[in-house]
Amino acid sequence: MADHPPIEAYDELDSTNAEARRRAETGEGGPVWISARRQTAGHGRRGRAWSTEAGNLAATLLTTTEVPPAEAAQLSFVAALAACDLADTCLGPGGARLKWPNDVLVHGAKAVGILVESGPRPDGRLWLAVGIGINLAHAPTGTERPATSFAEHMASPPPAPLDALEILASRFEAWRRLWTTQGFAPIAQGWTARAQGLGERCEARLPNRTLTGVAEGLDLDGALRLRLDDGALERITAGDVFFGGA
Ligand code: BTN
């Protein structure tokens, strides 16, 4: 028996996150993984489009939680660790690094994007859609920042999307259990061990301002601790960070 929630695989959807939202809004609570070979309206963080070319993985875990929204958002780090484990399986240990909050980079270019969406349920709990897009076979062109695919760094072909999802879902379940039983600390530790750019200068583009400083590490809740040039400490809870060119 699989050690993860069931997988429902579609040929085509507008977006696996949108499908999870529709299901949640009609009362479905999961847990279930929803995947699609093609997305016609995949979306990313901050309203950006996300393209899913043939051979890439688009999947969303629909689940329900009793923890408050701010804490539930920590599942994005769980997802990043699971995706990094999948990258290790394909590329070898250390083949991928994590960039705050939850991008997975391969040789400095983005290969995985994660988008967690949520909403209230009538019973007071929260539904969560943990969406993960993985460039297994192809990388999009013309992106704002460099993108890559696993295939570009593999000697053999990358796994088929549903085979990759089996690995991803198992690793997600392992990290999720750790989070449920021991809290955010071991997740933060795992993330920090694989993080790119800690201790380096970076630019944090927030919704309404841009800050520069040194990325010191994760706070207890997943915020990025940014030491500004005047010595003040800023907790970054939303936005994008850029180190050097990426
Ligand atoms: C980002 O880096 O901006 C996040 C990208 C998230 C893309 C995935 S693909 C599966 C799921 N369905 C969507 O429409 N988005 C997420």
Helix proportion: 25-40%
H-E string: EHEEHHEEEEHHEEEEE
- What sort of overall outline do the alpha carbons produce when their principal axes are compared? globular
Sheet-strand content, in percent, reads 25-35%
Instruction: Report the mean per-residue pLDDT as an integer.
Output: 95
The side-by-side strand order for the widest beta sheet comes to 1-2-3-7-6-5-4
The main sheet comes to: 7 strands, mixed
Number of helices: 5
- Low-pLDDT segments: none
Determine the N-to-C terminus distance: 41 Å
The counted number of beta strands is 12
**Hetero ligands:** biotin
Radius of gyration: 17 Å
Class inferred from helices and paired strands: alpha+beta
Task: Please supply descriptive tags for the structure shown above.
5-stranded antiparallel beta sheet, 246 residues, single chain, alpha+beta, 7-stranded mixed beta sheet, 5 helices, binds biotin
Characterize the structure shown.
With 246 residues, the protein is an alpha+beta fold. It contains five helices and twelve strands. The model has no long low-confidence stretch (mean pLDDT 95). The structure holds biotin (BTN). The site of biotin has 19 residues, from helix 1, strand 3, strand 6 and strand 7.
